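Bug #77: duplicate submission created two jobs. Keeping one. Sequence:
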Amino acid sequence: MASSVVVARTKTDGLEYLAEGAPVVWTATSDLAQQFSNVREATRAAMRLPSRFRAFALPVTPSVN
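Kept job's structure:
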């Protein structure tokens, strides 16, 4: 089972994810989030953001219905 990792941050109404393509744009939909191949790369991207974003790497596994 392959998994991917996204960069996320918490908001009062849930999580937001770093969107793909733009330097610092956030989306509420995880499907539009930039995907990283491992936690290390996602953590590096999160740490390069300004500290006011308080972002972190979040492993994502596909849901099974």
